[in-house]
Amino acid sequence: MNNQLINAGKIFLPENKKAYFISDLHLGMYPYEVSAKRERIVNEWIDEVKADLGVLFLVGDIFDFWYEYRKVAPRGFVRFLAKIAELTDSGIPVYFFTGNHDVWVFDYLSKEIGVKVYRNPIEIAINNKQFFIGHGDGVGPGDTSYKILRKIFQNKALQYIFSRIHPNFAFYLAHSWSKHSRYSKGMFEPFLGKDKEYNILFANEYLTTRHIDIFVFGHRHITMDITVGKASKLYNLGEWIVGNTYGKFDGINFEIKSFAAFNNKGKEINVVKM
Hints:
Elements: E1 6-11, E2 18-22, H1 32-49, E3 53-59, H2 78-89, E4 94-97, H3 108-113, E5 116-118, E6 122-126, E7 129-133, H4 144-153, H5 156-163, H6 167-185, H7 198-206, E8 214-217, E9 223-228, E10 232-237, E11 245-249, E12 254-258, E13 271-273
Parallel strand pairs: 1-6, 2-3, 3-4, 4-5, 7-8, 8-10, 9-13
Antiparallel strand pairs: 2-11, 6-7, 9-10, 11-12
């Protein structure tokens, strides 16, 4: 269990407003022309849901790589950042969770865009439902090599050394690594089974000591609707590389939906249900 879990209090959705959840946009991912198109589609989705948007949760890997220097921030997402700033300026709260690809988010997004940044999972009550929300990387048993790598990335000394590298070269290294990792492993991994998925194992163990109604994760690029414990639910939000899937909570019910404006118009959502 993550011993840095944050209790983020309570949210009461205004009448006729809903909570929306998206993850794994990987904005900036090679090829960049496709990423730019994806950015525009994400903005179209925000415009579509804005009328009943009460709170937005960005559940990690929103960017394929992010590192902000003291005076320099990444380029390539200006339309998306402007859209998020538009939401926060209008009073809509936006929660941003760092993922394994954007672990080096510091204070730029909170100060300039107005989002609430979380580097660890949170518990938060939305209306009368208790949520556990996090990107999902490094949660649960196993995956030891990644957990070690994450600790290395969170090391202050390493961050300082990386910040000494010229941004042009630093971003070239980062994007090259991300491109190699993504295309060598493949865009998607198969569902491992209810008895092997780390997040499901984590949720079942967590429920032995605390009550959670709904777990929400990203990271796996698989849409899931899984019953955990006796009657709790675990949802994985999927991704926006192909599926354009997101979560919607109306104050009572949570569902996985797909925005059909990209390349999946009319396509049935493939959700693992158990």
